[in-house]
Write a structure and sequence with these properties.
8 helices, single chain, mainly alpha, Ubiquinone biosynthesis protein COQ4
Length: 150
Protein backbone atom coordinates (compact mmCIF):
# COMPACT_ATOMS: atom_id res chain seq x y z
CA UNK A 1 0.00 0.00 0.00
CA UNK A 2 2.77 2.48 0.86
CA UNK A 3 4.56 1.73 -2.46
CA UNK A 4 1.31 2.48 -4.28
CA UNK A 5 0.88 5.75 -2.36
CA UNK A 6 4.45 6.89 -3.03
CA UNK A 7 4.14 6.02 -6.73
CA UNK A 8 0.90 8.01 -6.95
CA UNK A 9 2.56 11.00 -5.27
CA UNK A 10 5.36 10.75 -7.84
CA UNK A 11 2.93 10.55 -10.75
CA UNK A 12 1.00 13.59 -9.48
CA UNK A 13 4.15 15.65 -8.97
CA UNK A 14 6.07 14.64 -12.12
CA UNK A 15 4.29 16.88 -14.65
CA UNK A 16 4.44 20.10 -12.57
CA UNK A 17 8.09 19.35 -11.75
CA UNK A 18 8.92 18.91 -15.44
CA UNK A 19 7.05 22.05 -16.42
CA UNK A 20 7.97 24.51 -13.68
CA UNK A 21 11.26 23.36 -12.21
CA UNK A 22 13.23 21.63 -14.98
CA UNK A 23 14.67 24.36 -17.15
CA UNK A 24 16.89 22.13 -19.29
CA UNK A 25 15.99 21.22 -22.86
CA UNK A 26 14.77 17.71 -23.69
CA UNK A 27 17.47 15.53 -25.23
CA UNK A 28 15.46 14.61 -28.33
CA UNK A 29 16.75 11.06 -28.48
CA UNK A 30 14.88 7.78 -28.44
CA UNK A 31 15.60 4.28 -27.17
CA UNK A 32 16.24 2.88 -30.64
CA UNK A 33 19.01 5.45 -31.21
CA UNK A 34 20.57 4.63 -27.81
CA UNK A 35 20.73 0.96 -28.82
CA UNK A 36 23.15 1.92 -31.62
CA UNK A 37 25.71 3.44 -29.23
CA UNK A 38 28.85 1.47 -28.34
CA UNK A 39 28.06 -1.26 -25.80
CA UNK A 40 30.20 0.21 -23.00
CA UNK A 41 28.87 3.76 -23.48
CA UNK A 42 26.58 5.72 -21.21
CA UNK A 43 24.08 6.07 -24.05
CA UNK A 44 23.88 2.31 -24.57
CA UNK A 45 23.64 1.84 -20.79
CA UNK A 46 20.74 4.28 -20.68
CA UNK A 47 18.98 2.51 -23.54
CA UNK A 48 19.49 -0.87 -21.87
CA UNK A 49 18.20 0.46 -18.54
CA UNK A 50 15.09 1.88 -20.18
CA UNK A 51 14.41 -1.28 -22.18
CA UNK A 52 15.02 -3.73 -19.36
CA UNK A 53 12.64 -1.80 -17.09
CA UNK A 54 10.07 -1.18 -19.86
CA UNK A 55 10.47 2.59 -19.51
CA UNK A 56 10.42 5.35 -22.06
CA UNK A 57 12.52 8.48 -21.98
CA UNK A 58 10.87 11.10 -19.80
CA UNK A 59 11.33 14.50 -21.36
CA UNK A 60 13.52 16.81 -19.25
CA UNK A 61 14.04 13.99 -16.70
CA UNK A 62 16.64 12.04 -18.67
CA UNK A 63 19.31 12.74 -16.04
CA UNK A 64 17.32 10.75 -13.49
CA UNK A 65 17.70 7.54 -15.47
CA UNK A 66 21.36 8.31 -16.15
CA UNK A 67 21.92 8.44 -12.38
CA UNK A 68 20.33 4.98 -12.14
CA UNK A 69 22.84 3.72 -14.70
CA UNK A 70 25.87 5.34 -13.09
CA UNK A 71 25.01 4.32 -9.52
CA UNK A 72 23.60 0.88 -10.40
CA UNK A 73 20.44 1.74 -8.48
CA UNK A 74 17.31 -0.35 -8.95
CA UNK A 75 13.83 0.99 -9.53
CA UNK A 76 11.88 -0.19 -6.49
CA UNK A 77 10.33 2.58 -4.43
CA UNK A 78 12.86 2.32 -1.60
CA UNK A 79 15.76 2.21 -4.09
CA UNK A 80 14.44 5.39 -5.75
CA UNK A 81 14.41 7.03 -2.32
CA UNK A 82 17.90 5.69 -1.67
CA UNK A 83 19.07 7.29 -4.91
CA UNK A 84 17.85 10.65 -3.62
CA UNK A 85 19.85 10.06 -0.45
CA UNK A 86 22.86 9.32 -2.68
CA UNK A 87 22.31 12.58 -4.57
CA UNK A 88 21.90 14.49 -1.31
CA UNK A 89 25.25 13.09 -0.17
CA UNK A 90 26.69 14.10 -3.54
CA UNK A 91 25.69 17.71 -2.98
CA UNK A 92 22.42 18.03 -4.86
CA UNK A 93 19.87 20.31 -3.25
CA UNK A 94 16.32 20.75 -4.47
CA UNK A 95 12.84 20.99 -3.04
CA UNK A 96 11.88 17.80 -4.86
CA UNK A 97 14.83 15.89 -3.37
CA UNK A 98 13.89 17.08 0.11
CA UNK A 99 10.29 15.98 -0.40
CA UNK A 100 11.34 12.50 -1.54
CA UNK A 101 13.77 12.09 1.36
CA UNK A 102 11.19 13.29 3.89
CA UNK A 103 8.36 11.11 2.64
CA UNK A 104 10.69 8.17 2.10
CA UNK A 105 12.05 8.38 5.63
CA UNK A 106 8.53 8.54 7.06
CA UNK A 107 7.20 5.65 4.96
CA UNK A 108 10.30 3.45 5.12
CA UNK A 109 11.89 3.85 8.57
CA UNK A 110 13.14 0.24 8.45
CA UNK A 111 15.21 1.11 5.36
CA UNK A 112 17.13 3.85 7.19
CA UNK A 113 20.38 1.83 7.20
CA UNK A 114 20.12 1.50 3.42
CA UNK A 115 19.37 5.22 3.05
CA UNK A 116 22.35 6.17 5.22
CA UNK A 117 24.61 3.83 3.24
CA UNK A 118 23.45 5.50 0.00
CA UNK A 119 24.05 8.94 1.49
CA UNK A 120 27.60 7.89 2.42
CA UNK A 121 28.18 6.49 -1.09
CA UNK A 122 27.11 9.83 -2.57
CA UNK A 123 29.26 11.75 -0.11
CA UNK A 124 32.35 9.70 -0.97
CA UNK A 125 31.89 10.19 -4.73
CA UNK A 126 33.14 13.32 -6.47
CA UNK A 127 30.27 15.68 -7.17
CA UNK A 128 28.74 14.82 -10.54
CA UNK A 129 24.99 15.36 -10.19
CA UNK A 130 25.15 18.71 -12.04
CA UNK A 131 26.89 17.46 -15.21
CA UNK A 132 25.32 17.73 -18.66
CA UNK A 133 25.04 14.01 -19.30
CA UNK A 134 23.58 14.56 -22.77
CA UNK A 135 27.13 15.42 -23.90
CA UNK A 136 28.59 12.31 -22.28
CA UNK A 137 26.53 9.58 -23.95
CA UNK A 138 29.48 8.22 -25.94
CA UNK A 139 31.76 7.95 -22.90
CA UNK A 140 32.20 4.54 -21.28
CA UNK A 141 30.12 4.08 -18.12
CA UNK A 142 33.09 2.59 -16.29
CA UNK A 143 35.29 5.59 -17.10
CA UNK A 144 32.69 7.98 -15.65
CA UNK A 145 32.24 5.81 -12.56
CA UNK A 146 35.99 5.62 -11.97
CA UNK A 147 36.55 9.32 -12.61
CA UNK A 148 33.88 10.37 -10.11
CA UNK A 149 34.44 7.46 -7.70
CA UNK A 150 30.83 6.37 -8.00
Amino acid sequence: MRDFLIEKLYECSKKPYQKYFKKNEPWNIDKSKLATYPKESLGFGLGSFLSSNHFDIQEKLEDHDIIHVLTNTGVSVYEEIGMQYFLFGNGKRSLYLYMVILTGTIFYPKRMNYFIAQYKRGKSAHSFHYLDFSKMLLLPVQTIQETFKI
